[in-house]
Amino acid sequence: MMMKMSNQIIKFAVTGRSCTGKSTFINLVRDVYPGDETFAAVGFGDCTMIQREYMHPRNKHITFTDLPGFGTDTVIKEKFSKSINLSVFDFVFIFLDSVIMDDDIWVVIKLQALGTPYCFVRSKVDIDSLNAKDMGKTKMKVVKEIRKKLETKISNHRLLKDSRLFLISNKKQVFYIGDIGPLFSFIAGKLPKDKSNALLFFLPILSTEMIEKKLQMLLERINLISVGAAVLSAIPVPFLDTPINIFLVKKEIKYYIEIFLLDKEHVAKVPDVKKRNLLEIRLEAIVTSGLATTAHLAMAVLLSQVDSLIPVIGIAIAAKATSVYVRPFLSKALLEMKYDAIAVYEHYTCTKH
Ligand SMILES: Nc1nc2c(ncn2[C@@H]2O[C@H](COP(=O)(O)OP(=O)(O)OP(=O)(O)O)[C@@H](O)[C@H]2O)c(=O)[nH]1
Ligand SMILES: [Mg+2]
């Protein structure tokens, strides 16, 4: 499963008018910051002049191609058309300004002909929200109005009417205003299952909804890992303390830490993170004792004896027992880590403020 995930090739492209936040978005979804090697330059318009592919820092098969902003004097449609092959992409984001321009429609027609999924994105809703007060409106009202205006335009247009629109902010602190969660749920629905799982695995946590989605994906994985552990332990060895089980479970816990951003750096400043102890080098000891408390000790002794006495019966029982103990241990760890992930997310995005 893990192998499958890291081998999935997913090619995204981001296109749209200049200065609509494309490069900023590409940095956001890869969780890279100024100074990082693959940080995409952002600016004040006409910033990205040539097509460039940016790899996900933890998975080189997931790429985001930053296309030059069109609709400016320097980047004309014909040039775009000649030098850019839209057919290679799995999904295309079309970034909008406050209005939909002919160039945007032109790209949609191209993508529809190719059968490539796409959506419109309008970024910078945080700026609109900030201005809301001056207009005597609430933040939510302003966002609603922008949505209504653009959606009316989309639904009234013969070629655009099935297109989806997402309003987002590229600023992490104000995610709670926009549609960043629904945007990625939409994309996941447009990709084949293996690709959408890979995306869920490698995307940074951009919303609490995403934490829930990651959790569901990981719970599905537990069935596989516990079956995997069971199959491995069916080689007649005492089941509970086999190094293979511990190794697998430890590896799985390490994935959770990575996916839920519970690594040392992220949790350092966050209060109330319960699973902090999992970060220590004692991970193996924690996993071993965790599994031992889940298992009923007398049962364990009995089973390991059966195992050596009657190998065939032993194999079946030991395999079953392992999956019975690994599954609850991992599910419990995962559920606890979910709450920690929410605490970390809220700490860094200030959703409570
Ligand atoms: N407040 C706010 N600023 C944003 C947001 N997205 C982008 N910006 C800012 O908008 C400016 C333009 O962003 P870029 O990411 O360079 O835009 P681009 O679409 O890549 O522009 P070109 O490369 O010229 O086509 C930068 O100053 C960004 O910091 C957002 O969601 N909120
Ligand atoms: Mg750019």
TrEMBL record:
Entry's family note:
Belongs to the TRAFAC class dynamin-like GTPase superfamily. IRG family.
Which species is listed as the source?
Mytilus coruscus
Residue ranges spanning the membrane: these are none
Q: What is this protein called?
A: IRG-type G domain-containing protein
**Where is it found, in Gene Ontology cellular component terms?**
membrane
Annotated keywords? GTP-binding, Hydrolase, Nucleotide-binding
Q: Which GO terms describe its molecular function?
A: GTP binding; hydrolase activity
Q: What lineage does UniProt assign to this protein's organism? A: Eukaryota, Metazoa, Spiralia, Lophotrochozoa, Mollusca
Please verify whether the record's keywords include Magnesium. no
What positions does the domain IRG-type G occupy?
Answer: 8-213
Database matches in SUPFAM superfamilies:
P-loop containing nucleoside triphosphate hydrolases
**Keyword Hydrolase appears in the UniProt entry:** yes
